[in-house]
Amino acid sequence: xxxxxxxxxxxxxxxxxxxxxxxxxxxxxxxxxxxxxxxxxxxxxxxxxxxxxxxxxxxxxxxxxxxxxxxxxxxxxxxxxxxxxxxxxxxxxxxxxxxxxxxxxxxxxxxxxxxxxxxxxxxxxxxxxxxxxxxxxxxxxxxxxx
Amino acid sequence: xxxxxxxxxxxxxxxxxxxxxxxxxxxxxxxxxxxxxxxxxxxxxxxxxxxxxxxxxxxxxxxxxxxxxxxxxxxxxxxxxxxxxxxxxxxxxxxxxxxxxxxxxxxxxxxxxxxxxxxxxxxxxxxxxxxxxxxxxxx
Lengths: 146, 139
Hints:
The complex is a heterodimer. By secondary structure, chain A is mainly alpha-helical. Chain A is built from six helices and one strand, in the order H-H-E-H-H-H-H. The longest helix of chain A has 24 residues, at 2-25. In chain B, 74% of the residues lie in helices and 1% in strands. Chains A and B meet through helix 1, helix 2, strand 1, helix 3 and helix 4 of A and strand 1, helix 1, helix 2, helix 3 and helix 4 of B.
């Protein structure tokens, strides 16, 4: 048990690092690149579609291979939401997120990774994003996701 | 429409690494990567708090390690309007919590499992993101 406990911590750190390097190599860490992807009606940069394709090609087969396994290697059980509900909250929440994403070109992963570059803009975005997390928690509107 | 700055190879390679992180986290820790979920749970929940902290720390270390090993600068171009950044940050924080996921949680972990809910969420935030950029460019 104890060993498993510690190994899961190491895995968490390593996964964060790999994810952060992936965001850097793909340039998704750069808001200008994201805004270029969303600028379909102007000068369009389709690159980020390839980030998603790459991520899905690697990850999707494993979800389906392992979904019948009883236990993950370093934890006692799989824990993730299997929420299938299609409701107003999903649409409203995703719309608000899309508006913020289109305004600054930042979503949560790249925003946090870009703290590595010590620029004030990233810090302001991340602080207000956490304020947003907290406000939703206070208002009890959270959709428990993943 | 004009296609510019297209970098499919580095995008695909970086995306594959992101997919690899998702696989390792799933197979070893039994959890799905969604950054908004990990970050908000780090703030709001005692469950797995240290795991979540270490993941977020790794996320920040990733670009630093890249820089050290490749000796390449990471150049990004980001708005310097603090009002725009604060509004966008709030919208992203509030929206991802109400909608239960972001680009990674819905866009990769959700779609990878063929979750209809995540497909709907991803199409929604993509459309609104595209419209926001379009309107912003009109003003």
